[in-house]
Design brief:
The structure holds three protein chains of three kinds. By secondary structure, chain A is an alpha+beta fold. Chain A contains five helices and three strands. In chain A, strand 2 and strand 3 (about 55-60) form a beta hairpin. In chain A, helix 1 crosses helix 2 (about 65-75) and helix 4 crosses helix 5 (about 105-130). By secondary structure, chain B is of the alpha/beta class. Chain B folds into two domains: about 5-10 and about 260-385, Aspartate Aminotransferase, domain 1, CATH 3.90.1150; about 15-255, Aspartate Aminotransferase, domain 2 (3-Layer(aba) Sandwich). The longest helix of chain B has 25 residues, at about 360-385. Chain B starts with a strand and ends with a helix. Chain C has twelve helices and 13 strands. By secondary structure, chain C is an alpha/beta fold. Classes of the chains: A alpha+beta, B alpha/beta, C alpha/beta. Chains B and C meet through helix 1, helix 3, helix 4, helix 5 and helix 9 of B and helix 1, helix 2, helix 3, helix 4 and helix 7 of C.
Chain lengths: ~130, ~375, ~400
């Protein structure tokens, strides 16, 4: 399988790898995928005032495309509001990384990770209000 | 002792030095399995793909229409049995002069409810139009007629036959292993006329043994004969024979590139040979038919072909007494029988098939030796009577 | 100087030994005759070479040359063996037994036999990859005509108890086929002693060329097969088609070398394999797949838990190895062989097959060990699963949002 230059770049130098402390203010986590399917993504967002995502981190168990998709997403969501983040579509991710058809599921997973993280944030936020 | 002169190119050909040169790296250094995902494997895959394009280009086909097999026999088996497996049993029509690897698979189908009809040929070895028409009227499902016969070199009017076969809905296959490199073979054009499958083999055109192809119109359903891993679009499993396939690709490219010049030269040699043969009283089979430029199939009345080729071999000329088949078959050629040649004359059959390495001097020498040998044998025969 | 990538995929294919290539070349040039040509010296010369090679193949496995049939490779041999035997003996019964960890060439052929009306039992293996003889015995029925068990597994290298299975089959009148593609040159094969009826061989797994294989068909007691390729009646009618002389000569030479060098070579490779295993065993959560004792020394199949196989392959692209997950297709299917061992999917996804061979060096093994240490560490840093395990989470209790 040949990977695009962008996938290779994200794979070799993944952006924003890591985790936030669980107790940190405004942190929400989206965990999607399953080990049995060969990929699990954990996307964490740190949401500040006005619902703006100030920081994001990820960890991914999966192929190069899955790692690149989640790395890219951490870059994209930073500075966006959570509503704007939800507008990120898997097709944009796939286009940006030039994913081959067999790897489209990686971009779908990354989109799902955003949704899951936002859902987690809203759930926590609703509880805290 | 000087090296014997090889005049049996329809049995097999030496590999072109450039072909061997191209193959060698794929044995010891670039040895990957084309299914492996690492660099060794990907390099092998690229080489197979390139060879596929070369083979396709040589016959004007699309590279996705090329299915690699281990040989022409396998390709013919694949088409006959594989296409039949996807159809309800019906009528299979094959010419009476086909190679056994078309005829025998056909016979196997009888056990599955198929009926096999032989397409008769005329005295020159061409499919008889009247008999062909009669069989077409019975609406065969598969028709196979070889483009050029391996023994006589006689060419068939494949486009016309295929058009008629298509009009009754038959799948038409042609075995072109002897034709490519010697006459123009254009799959797109044949395909437009109704030919849906065509067989090629590397070792008949300056490539290695062990690689061949079925060029297949993708609209034809074919069941694989060899299962396990799904190589070649599922039509032929098994690790690709990368080196031989690479050799096959280049051999096709070279053969088609030099075909026109070679054919002209071979035709000159053939004429020289035929003049000499006729002068010493030989009968040339299919003489008046359009034939491959390299093939002369002849006999001397009352002279046994086996004996003659044995003497010629000892005198330094390698020719064939019939089709180069496996078993030492004492039966006279089924091709000549189909042409209505008497068994007595057929027993005398000798085939000379020329190649690019043959020269005028070799033909002169061959004729000289032949004349002397024939005279001696005829003298012996006369004494024994 | 180390040449990268380092080839550690000898079970996928081997390079042609230079000594083998050298023997092959003349048969493309001056000795190019068709072995079936009966009327001239070109043909006889080729035929003699073919018969000499047949003797070499027979010698490696202690068989009679007349029991060796040339094919285009192990896949064709397996097809001919299974379809040929099943079809020939179908009057006696319709039941066939094989194992879930067999090569695709066996499994796909069995699927085809099922379509032809045969019934096939696919046996499980124990978690070490070996067949349980009691389980095997238990599934044999009066109408069982054929059993097929591979000698050495291509993914995990385990050696099945062929001698014992042979005894059982012979006692029950079942034709026994063995796919020995991965076994030649690695284990001693004595067909005088083994009660095997049909055995498949490949040249390109034993330093011979691709495109050539053979099938052993026992003569005493005589085993019959229905031919699958028809035509000129080559190979005593078992398999028609022009014999590729140069490839056959290559297989003969490769098997001759295997016979002469197997002992010393296996010891050297065992040393290297043990060095690799030792070098990797200080990485946490590393599991060897398949039995370590009943195994060829050439194979080490390891799961690096919590690291996904494809990304691992990408990280170690300086090593030419295979991953347990067959990623060529759209779906990321974990290896069916590892699944049959009962490995959880994530371990099956995380496996790497290292297969060592004639040209593997100590320097290459040391490089591989260093590279794996570094890359496994990096990928685990990236892995949410690893993080969870470090935090003490039991992954089997997690509700995964399967997609």
């Amino acid at each position: 399988m040949s990977y695009s230059v962008k996938v290779l770049d994200h794979y070799e130098n993944p952006r924003n790898v890591g985790s936030f402390g669980k107790e940190e203010e405004g942190v929400a986590t989206g965990m999607v995928g399953a080990p049995a399917c060969g990929d699990v993504m954990k996307l964490q967002i740190k949401v500040g005032k006005g619902g703006v995502i100030e920081d994001a981190k990820f960890k991914t168990y999966g192929c190069g495309s899955a790692i690149a998709s989640s790395s890219l997403v951490t870059e994209w969501v930073k500075g966006k509001t959570i509503d704007q983040a939800l507008d990120i579509k898997n097709t944009q991710i796939a286009d940006e990384l030039a994913l081959p058809p067999v790897k489209i599921h990686c971009s779908i997973l990354a989109e799902d990770a955003i949704k899951a993280a936002v859902a987690d944030y809203r759930k926590k936020h609703a509880e805290s209000v | 002792m000087f090296a014997p002169v090889y005049l049996d190119h329809n049995a097999t050909t030496p590999a072109d030095p450039a072909v061997v040169e191209a193959m060698l790296p794929w044995l010891a250094t670039r040895f990957g399995n084309a299914s492996s995902r690492h660099e060794y494997g990907r390099a092998a895959r690229r080489a197979v793909d390139e060879a596929r394009s070369q083979v396709a280009a040589a016959v004007g086909a699309h590279s996705t229409e090329v299915v690699f097999t281990s040989g022409g026999s396998e390709a013919n088996n694949l088409l006959i049995k594989g296409a039949a497996a996807c159809l309800k049993p019906g009528l299979l029509a094959v010419s009476a002069i086909e190679h056994p690897c078309v005829i025998r698979p056909g016979q196997q189908l009888v056990r599955r409810g198929w009926v096999v009809q032989e397409l008769a040929v005329d005295s020159l070895g061409r499919v008889d139009p009247g008999r062909f028409e009669a069989v077409m009227a019975q609406k065969p499902k598969i028709v196979s007629v070889m483009l050029a016969n391996n023994e006589t070199g006689v060419l068939q009017d494949i486009e016309r036959l295929a058009e008629r076969a298509r009009s009754v809905g038959a799948c038409f296959h042609t075995d072109a292993v002897q034709a490519i490199g010697k006459v123009a073979v254009d799959f797109r054009r044949l395909n437009a006329a109704g030919v849906q499958a065509l067989t090629l083999s590397a070792h008949k055109l300056g490539g290695p043994k062990g690689a061949a192809a079925l060029v297949l119109d993708k609209r034809v359903d074919v069941e694989p004969l060899i299962a396990g891993g799904g190589h070649e679009r599922g039509l032929r499993s098994g690790t690709e024979n990368v080196a031989a396939i690479v050799g096959f690709g280049l051999a096709c490219e070279l053969a088609v590139g030099r075909r026109a010049d070679l054919a002209r030269r071979l035709l000159g040699l053939r004429r020289q040979l035929e003049c000499g043969l006729l002068a010493c009283g030989a009968t040339i089979f299919g003489q008046a038919a359009e034939r491959l430029p390299n093939t002369v199939y002849f006999a001397f009345p009352e002279l046994d072909g086996e004996t003659l080729v044995g003497k010629l071999d000892r005198a330094g000329y390698a020719v064939a007494s019939g089709a180069a088949c496996s078993s030492a078959n004492p039966e006279p050629s089924h091709v000549l029988r189909a042409m209505g040649v008497s068994p007595e004359l057929a027993r005398g059959a000798v085939r000379v098939s020329l190649g690019g390495d043959n020269t005028q001097e070799q033909i002169d020498g061959f004729l000289c030796t032949l004349q002397a040998t024939v005279a001696r044998l005829q003298h012996l025969t006369a004494m024994s009577v | 100087m180390l040449k990268l990538p380092i080839y550690l995929d000898y079970s996928a294919t081997t390079p042609v030994d230079p000594r083998v290539a050298e023997k092959m070349i003349p048969y493309l040039f001056e000795k190019f005759g068709n072995p079936a040509s009966r009327s001239h010296s070109f043909g006889w010369e080729a035929e003699a070479a073919v018969e000499e090679a047949r003797e070499e193949v027979a010698k490696l496995v202690n068989a009679d040359p007349k029991e060796i049939v040339w094919t285009s490779g192990a896949t064709e041999s397996n097809n001919l063996a299974l379809k040929g035997a099943a079809q020939f003996y179908s009057g006696k019964g319709k039941h066939v037994v094989t194992v879930k960890t067999e090569h695709k060439a066996i499994l796909d052929t069995c699927r085809e036999l099922e379509r032809q009306g045969f019934e096939v039992t696919y046996l499980d293996v124990r978690d070490n990859g070996l067949l349980d003889l009691e389980v095997f015995k238990a599934v044999l029925r009066p109408d069982t005509i054929l059993a097929s068990v591979m000698f050495v597994n291509n993914e995990i290298g385990v050696i099945q108890p062929i001698a014992e299975i042979g005894e059982i089959c012979r006692a029950r009148g079942v034709i026994f086929h063995v796919d020995a593609a991965q076994a030649t040159g690695k284990v001693v094969i004595d067909l005088e002693a083994l009660k095997v009826d049909v055995m498949s061989f490949s040249a390109h797994k034993t330093y011979g060329p691709k495109g050539i294989g053979a099938l052993y068909v026992r003569r005493k007691p005589r085993v019959r097969l229905t031919a699958q390729l028809h035509g000129g009646g080559h190979e005593r009618g078992f398999r028609s088609g022009t014999l590729p002389t140069h490839q056959i000569v290559g297989m003969g030479e490769a098997f001759r070398l295997a016979r002469l060098e197997m002992g010393a070579e296996s010891e050297r490779i065992r040393m290297l394999r043990d060095r690799l295993l030792k070098g990797l065993s200080d990485i946490d959560e590393v599991y060897v797949n398949g039995d370590l004792e009943q195994r060829v020394p050439h194979n080490l199949n390891i799961s690096f838990a919590y690291v996904e196989g494809e990304s691992l392959l990408m990280a170690i692209k300086d090593l030419a190895v295979s991953s347990g997950s067959a990623c060529t297709s759209a779906s990321l299917e974990p290896s069916y062989v590892l699944r049959a061992l009962g490995r959880e999917d994530e371990l099956a996804h995380s496996s790497i097959r290292f297969t060592l061979g004639r040209f593997t060096t100590e320097e290459e093994i040391d490089y591989a060990i260093r590279l794996l240490h570094e890359k496994i560490g990096r990928l685990r840093e990236l892995s949410p699963l690893w993080e969870m395990v470090q935090e003490g989470v039991d992954l089997s209790t997690v509700q995964w949002a399967a997609h």
